[in-house]
Specification:
mainly alpha, elongated
């Protein structure tokens, strides 16, 4: 989660620097949305692993989130290259 938050901060800071460059702004906004979606999934997983979210509730919430993201055209997320 710390990596995702750091990347979000970097994208937000970079957006301020490229204001007016529409293609670059657009790409950065897409990256920010991807990071926000990834963060939601990671946060759900962390809640489950910490015991704050029982398995059945985790599966239900994970399914609902995935369905909402698919419906909005936000899944699948682009894969990361190592």
């Amino acid at each position: 989660m710390h990596r995702i938050e750091a990347e979000q901060d970097d994208v937000l800071a970079t957006l301020q620097l490229v204001r007016g460059d529409e293609p670059l702004e657009s790409r950065l906004y897409e990256q920010l949305v991807d990071l926000l979606v990834e963060g939601m999934f990671v946060e759900l997983r962390q809640q489950h692993l910490s015991g704050d979210l029982p398995r059945e509730a985790y599966v239900d919430e994970l399914t609902a989130l995935a369905d909402l993201c698919r419906g909005a055209g936000l899944l699948p997320l682009p894969s990361r290259e190592a």
